[in-house]
Amino acid sequence: MNIPLSKPEITPEDVAAVSAVLKSGKLTQGPQTALFEEMAAAYVGAKFAIAVSSHATALHAALLAAGIAPGREVITSPFAFIAAANAIEQCSARPRFVDIDPISLNLDPRKAISTLSEESQALVVSHTFGLPAESAALCGEAETCGLVVIEDASQAWGAQAGSVKVGGSPAALATVFSCYPGCPVTTGEGGLIVTHDAAFADACRSLINLGRDPAAPKGGGKGASWLTHTRLGFNYRMDEMSAALGVSQLARIDETLAQRQRLAEHYRGRLRPLKDRFILPMEIAGCRRAWSTFNIICREGVSREKVIGALADKGIATERYFDPPLHLQPFYREKYGESPGTLSIAEGIARQILALPFFTTMSAAEVDYVCDALEAL
What CA–CA distance (Å, rounded) separates 236 from 51? Predict the structure, then answer.
């Protein structure tokens, strides 16, 4: 048996939705993009959603629209996908990496708050592996200090803290989602920015559309032309085929998340007897985790590389998320002189964590096959 790390669920309805767009001849800036944005905003409980070409471009546009200034610091986690740090760097700001909580693996709010300085302008808060971060504490402190909070929910479609979905709280200026193939909602490549702030949403719409005025009408007539560009912008738009796929996927997100929850519970049940060798992903009372991936942490004395090799011999794919952590990535290490040992928790987790196969269409038999292989070590 060969089991991939991840694969998207593409149904006949998904194929039909994309095919219909191709047949329509309207391939960009059309009704599917508008519908996807409307559905996404309604789902998370935000007022506005802006569909873009990727999670990375969503982060970049959100930070630019937030007015992140050159030379300022943006606090973020070192234990995350590199897109967040890169987006900060692309604004000519500096990512200030702060260590994580060893249990949740999210940014440690106490350490983040103690790191704030006159150079700090914003925080990018990741919901690592779909577990809601302590955003309320961070947003409260940020408001007191006049800082911006952008939430990175690339792994948190459907995650919930209390009764509020990630992306639904107005405490953060914006939340960014990914629509990469491994996500519960995929558009191939793609991303979303959600917000409650109308002016911020307009700024994002302009930035992702080459700096055009989002209020300018098309087709001539009175007023500013739609070809009037009011700022330096980018082509970060989502195309209609991607949006149509997103609409079809988002229509069944509750079913998708329920299936992923069942798979995670099956994994946890099978691996609980191995807790002397592996730390299993946690859940927090009052929160709903969005199972984007399923990760185990090898305990001291368990060689992760031997586990990887043994699983590979049985056709089981794995991944080392996120190793090395961001402050030790070659670019950031060279530019800012970071050295090992400065963020010990993130570094220790990065050395021992391992992502196991996890995807919506994964069968219970495939989960059992992975768990049997781990038991046999």
Answer: 9
- The predicted-structure confidence for 185-206, as pLDDT tens digits, reads as follows 999 999 999 999 999 999 999 9
Q: Tokens for 293?
A: 């991936």
Same domain for 23 and 132, yes or no, is yes
Q: Do 183 and 98 share a domain, yes or no?
A: yes
DSSP codes of every residue in 310-336:
HHHHTTB--B-TTSS-GGGSHHHHHHH
Domain that holds residue 191: 12-250
Parallel, antiparallel or unpaired: strands 73-76 and 48-52: unpaired
If asked whether residues 132 and 270 sit together in one domain, one would say no
- CB proximity list for 223: less than 8 A, separation 6 or greater: 216, 217
Alpha helices in the chain (DSSP H): 12-24, 31-44, 55-65, 83-90, 109-115, 135-145, 198-207, 240-250, 253-271, 304-313, 330-336, 344-352, 364-375
- Phi-psi domain of 223 (left: phi exceeds 0; alpha: psi -120 through 50; beta: other): left
How many of the other CB atoms lie within 10 Å of CB of 375? 12
Instruction: Tell me which residue of 25, 23, 49 sits closest to 36, measured CA to CA.
Output: 49
Which amino acid type is present at position 244?
Answer: A
Average pLDDT over residues 347-372: 98
Residue 152's alpha-carbon distances to 59, 187, 320, 346, in angstroms, are: 8, 18, 20, 18
Give the SS3 label for residue 176.
strand
Q: Which pLDDT tens digit goes with each residue over 67-81?
A: 999 999 999 999 999
Residue 184: asked if its preceding bond is cis (omega within 30°), the reply is no
How many whole angstroms separate alpha carbon 94 and alpha carbon 332? 10
